[in-house]
Specification:
Cytochrome Bc1 Complex, Chain D, domain 2, homodimer, 13 helices, 2% strand, globular, mainly alpha, two-stranded antiparallel sheet
């Protein structure tokens, strides 16, 4: 594999990243956790409850899982999500599966960690719509079963805080890994794990340059220091690119909205390829309904290439080989508030 | 227990029901299944997937579980539910737990069986909003994993039908039982299962007449032939009843909307007491936020009684004794549609 070419590309981008092979299997264990949020079984169980609890939204209709459905692709398979009051989000919901291995969170990388990410949607007026972190804490404090669990996990002094809510959710999310995809099995030595088409696609994505960015355990970039995102401009080839207008690729400034630096206009965190076959529709717009069209758009927009149909089919076959094994989970049972409801009338 | 008084009440209502004791434990097994829908493990597993699958709604945002949340009370604990497009339902969502033991389904009893009930919300424009049964079938037929499962369960000839979708969901719902509540344990001989307050409340509900209607395994009426609902007028005592205006108790005609018979005005299926402590807010309006207030409203509206605070507290303690054991469930994994989404753009 073109390690040298890949390293050259990374170095050309001025990134101080360790240089790795383009293809690497997904670890079966959680990545390193922040020092102040060690993973424990009890914390993961609490985080799973919170992840599914709609009482963290203002009107009791939206949970984390509403848009990042872990019974499926970790997305909602909609162009953009629907939040409280029927409001629509601005960008397509990325998958939560393997998000633990992403360099930064959100399309524009505005959260350094899963903990930081978890704090966003709860307070976003078009997502879960809680008016403040204090309100979210009050909701949880009103549920006796949660208070007991927070005390056991975070101690008796001020156990229910917004920070702890986010830490528990992040601890659960770190368990959401899908190892052992056909590509992983192939990389570990199973020569029969991939079809001929998928193998041709695997060669093709290296040959044409996709893996300059789509590398690392998540195929979303090399290992980076925490919070240092792996970003790329999209589209690079915007001129005479019919997809720009057709799919509204440049209506959103991307990372510029976070930094207000001109250099960050239309920069996006490189997206994971893992389970990409399951996460249609595609791109920050959710405007591209199929994976084959997404491959055409990427080749044209990032590499200036117009692929033939058989080349697209091979790449799609390879990408389908990155659909992993989804762990069997138990369903959480949410602590209740006997004799009353917390949802506003 | 006042079996004689209870029987007299039943007979006075002209109902050809078998006469039973007012208090009876919940069976730990599913009730009799329809002859054409025997329960099998595979069908229950399929039904659970469908129950959680938002692709049965027009825009991919609402599943059965959205309003009847089996991670909690089997309701959404909202006054009325929110369906597709942020639309609000007309009546409070009843719990799905132990619904298998109800005489009929829906507040107005318009469905005779769980199978019939399951067909309603999918096509209701303010709930899941599918335009037709054929559209719902087409959604499921487009998901290869479902087609395989339907073939295995319902045979190769026309496996995916709306009827079969409803049968699978109903088969899953028949497993949603919460046995072994403190009251059940008390009825089976555990003298320590209930507090003194709960025991006083248990006597009180018989003494004042609540158990004329709230009897049987679900405390929602005696065993009846399938589809023959156990209905009651609500409110019976409407004159000079301040709750009628305060909680909009008579704005909805109830069963009249189904039959258009004057005698059915403000008739409602008798609601279950099981897990009632968890299903706030109360009544078809969802307008009563707490259980103690619901007890006051019922005593005043059905029995013409104004209860003292300690009587209310005792009855609330008894009703809390009907919170059952919620079975640990596995989380379903929903079959996917690689390379595309079924949700409209």
């Amino acid at each position: 594999m073109k390690k040298t070419a890949f390293c050259a590309a990374i170095l050309a981008m001025g990134l101080a990243a360790s240089c790795a092979w383009a293809f690497e299997p997904l670890p079966t264990t959680s990545p390193e956790t922040p020092a102040d949020n060690p993973t424990t079984e009890a914390k993961v169980a609490l985080g799973k409850q919170l992840y599914f609890d709609k009482r963290l939204s203002i009107d009791g209709t939206v949970s984390c899982n509403s848009c990042h459905n872990v019974m499926g692709s970790g997305t909602d398979n909609r162009p953009v999500s629907v939040g409280v009051g029927g409001k629509h989000g601005g960008r397509n919901a990325p998958t939560v599966w393997n998000a633990a291995y992403l360099s930064v969170q959100f399309w524009d990388g505005r959260a350094a960690t899963l903990e930081d990410q978890a704090k966003g949607p709860i307070l976003n007026p078009v997502e879960m719509g809680m008016p403040s972190a204090a309100e979210a804490e009050n909701r949880i404090r009103a549920i006796p079963g949660y208070v007991t669990a927070f005390q056991q996990i975070f101690g008796k002094t001020n156990p229910v805080t917004y920070e702890h809510i986010a830490q528990a959710i992040a601890a659960y999310e770190r368990t959401l890994l899908t190892p052992n995809s056909p590509v992983d099995r192939y990389l570990k030595g199973d020569q029969n794990a991939l079809s001929d088409a998928a193998l041709r696609g695997m060669k093709r994505v290296e040959q044409i340059g996709c893996t300059a960015c789509h590398t690392g355990p998540d195929f979303a970039g090399p290992a980076m220091p925490v919070g240092q995102g792996f970003f790329q401009k999209f589209p690079i080839y915007a001129e005479n690119n019919p997809y720009v207008a057709k799919y509204r690729l440049m209506d959103d400034d991307g990372r510029y909205a976070v930094t207000h630096q001109d250099a960050d206009k239309h920069l996006w965190r490189v997206q994971t390829w893992r389970n990409v076959a399951l996460t249609a529709p595609y791109f920050h717009t959710g405007s591209v309904p199929t994976l084959d069209e997404a491959v055409r758009v990427m080749a044209r927009s990032q590499l200036g290439l117009t692929l033939k149909d058989d080349e697209v089919a091979d790449i799609v076959a390879f990408l389908n080989g990155l659909t992993g094994e989804f762990p069997q989970q138990t369903m959480p049972s949410l602590p209740q508030t006997p004799n009353r409801t917390l949802t506003p009338q």
